[in-house]
Amino acid sequence: MKKIAVLVSNPCIIDARVIRISEAEVNLGYEVKVFAILKENTKEEEQKNGVFYKRIKWNLSEDVRKVIPKFIKIKKLKGFLVKRAAKFVKYDSFKNTFEEEILKYNPDIIHAHDLITLPLGSTIKDKIGAKLIYDAHELEVYRNPPLPWYEKIWVKYIEKKYGKKADVVITVNESIKLILQNVFKNKKIYVIRNTPVIEKYQGPSLRKKLGFDENKKILLYVGKVSTNRGIDWVIKELDKINENIHFVCVGHRDEKYLEKLKNLAKKYKVQNRVHFLEPVAHQHVVDFIKDADVGICAINPVSKSYFYSLPNKVFEMSMAGLPVIATDLPEIKKFLDEVGNGYYFSYKNPEKIHILVNEIMKNLDQINKKEIMKKSRKYAWENESKKIKKVLDEL
């Protein structure tokens, strides 16, 4: 049985893309071991759905301090330098932390998720002759938040130097594929979208968790609560939206940003109509959110990566049968137009959000949820995952 070493720079507890692809590789008859970051309250080793997980402690700060001159004693200056240097040191630091364990595993194939893992994957390939898959989740040079010019130069260098070692490149949509073709010339690039697994959710429904009857309407955001996702835009517009409509966010969150959003809701006196719920497992999201009335994906395209994004949430909300209000970005619009459930506003004019919400909520009886589900579910993971066999056959 051939072995695949999956490289990821997080604990791989909630990284739905990595988990889904790893499980699909197991189903194709491979032994799969995910090498991930060990953090508090995570297990060093475990097995889930046939995938082995090995988590290793990564102390980036300690590695960065080694490159800061010892004669610098001023704490603020040292802290500033550590923060800046981390952006450059992290690639070697990650490689040095994981290399020994992966060499012991002796994989036939390395699946490197995101650029930070690519130098490590390239090193392993050189040492043992393993095949290398690079999975570009986004445009690394143009990610959110936008990188300063000097960091962009470094990221471009890393991408070019180590990307040429990849045997196959995977990415998340056609627009990003076209851009990457200019970076990874003569490389075969496959598109595997971030589409959901759909399984029955056994817990209380979305409305039951909120204590809502049918008279209260739900405008839904699903996904990580963080900057440039348009959540702040919605809160600012909520006082112009009918009072029976509540804004509900389901997902993990950046706690500092969450506090800012709660304060913003208080400022606009809509705090009783803004709700933040804990996430459910990725395979249960679609079934859990089907109680909502309208979904929203208000991406603020502060970077090229965001401009060309096609987030998982767009698929999840569509597969739950929801009409979706979205920023009129190319990949999002292309998918929603195909399904027929998209309503758009310009990121330059988010004040239009309240008009769209009120209009759609007034005409919910005209929304054919079953048709939306039918058209969108052809992209469900059970179909999208079939592309993984093509990728592995290429090696």
Care to describe what's here?
The structure is a single chain. This protein has 17 helices and 14 strands. The radius of gyration is 22 Å and the shape is globular. The chain is an alpha/beta fold. The strands form two sheets. It has an eight-stranded mixed beta sheet, with helices on both faces. A six-stranded parallel beta sheet has the order 11-10-9-12-13-14, with helices on both faces. Helix 3 runs parallel beside helix 4.
DSSP helix fraction: 40-55%
User: Distance between the terminal alpha carbons, to the nearest Å?
Assistant: 15 Å
Structural class per helix/strand content? Answer: alpha/beta
Number of strands: 14
Reading side by side through the largest sheet, how are the strands ordered? Answer: 3-4-2-1-5-6-7-8
- Specify the biggest β-sheet: 8 strands, mixed
Q: What Rg, in angstroms, do the CA atoms define? A: 22 Å
Helical stretch tally? 17
Question: What amount of the residues lies in strands?
Answer: 15-25%
Low-confidence stretches: none
- Described by the principal axes of the CA atoms, the overall outline is globular
Provide the residue-averaged pLDDT: 93
